[in-house]
Automatic annotation (TrEMBL):
GO molecular function, one term: metal ion binding
InterPro entries linked: DUF2086, Oxoglu/Fe-dep_dioxygenase_dom
Name this protein carries in UniProt: Fe2OG dioxygenase domain-containing protein
Keywords noted in UniProt: Iron, Metal-binding, Oxidoreductase
Residues of the Fe2OG dioxygenase domain: 109-222
Amino acid sequence: MIDTETLADRGHIVAPSLLSAQECRTLAGWWSDAALFRKRIVMQRHGYGQGEYQYFTYPLPAEIQRLRETLYGPLAGIANRWNEVLGLEKRFPATLKQWLRDCHAAGQTRPTPLLLRYGAGDYNCLHRDLYGERVFPLQVAILLSEPQRDFEGGEFMLVEQRPRQQSRGEVVPLRQGDAVIFAVNERPAKGTRGWHRTAMRHGVSTLRRGERFTLGIIFHDAA
Ligand SMILES: O=C(O)CCC(=O)C(=O)O
Ligand SMILES: [Fe+2]
């Protein structure tokens, strides 16, 4: 179960061992199967960092579809409570199917789950995964490789930009199969005068050695 207090407090939470080592190897092995993907991005061509990622195409592989569906429900509950404390009207529907219908009606029709691959020297600049006006405020990244064995460096990072204060950075230690659930864009923060929003960005530090794969699950589709 998701510790919602910790998630709101820190803007992220780790779900240990969401996937087995075998599942991680299978998913990482999909990298070279071009038929599974709609688009490949070379990060250095866009100034996003260094490394590559590929967006899965619809229909998603059953494993990815299942993860996206089962994670959506509890995260929608949290997203709705976040909006409630922030005084925002928007509420997210109970199922992924309903939410995606909303995205598709707004012209965001392309799938966003992705596989990322980093080699030695690669990194992912701090960013937010926004793909249009429709934004689901939480997303999930699952580390498919084992730190120290498969790669060194390459740590998952979060930076919180607080209003009128200096930014705060955090490294999230992950092992193979662990999932980090984190705020896409903003999280609610309790200040002395009630709740406000703080801006979050995530990225990956430079790999010193080896190869690192990640599965990214984003819940809004892309325009
Ligand atoms: O490789 C990572 O850990 C970060 C992946 C990422 O940026 C994402 O899933 O949106
Ligand atoms: Fe990302």
